[in-house]
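New to this. Help decode the following:
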Amino acid sequence: MNNFFARLQAALQRFFYGRYGGDQLNWALIIVYLVLWVIGLFTGFFLFPLLSWLVFLLVMLRMLSRNRAKRWAENQKFLRGWNRFKGFFTGHAAELRDKEHRYYKCPKCKNKLRVPRGKGKIQITCPVCRTEFIKKT
């Protein structure tokens, strides 16, 4: 019996060798799968469980894929978008908590600039592109 499990383990290792496995995009797709499945469970609408199983199939195909470069590129594209989305909310939350500064974007390079509040109209110089503009703080 012990020999059977050793052979089974060796066979599974050979099968999974060179496969892509899991990444952040797969975790996001699993969450989408679960949300669609729960919505379908509560609404009874047949489309949601169908979509959830299609998402689950996509997760399995990505995990078992041997084209590691393409899966990695997909994950990097997802992470760029996710980090932009996440950064939008975390950056604005920090700005809202900061009561001592005002935040402006440079009109030329779009760099975020922080200036002290309560100084009246001041001339702001962007440290990146040296553009000068006047704002009220």
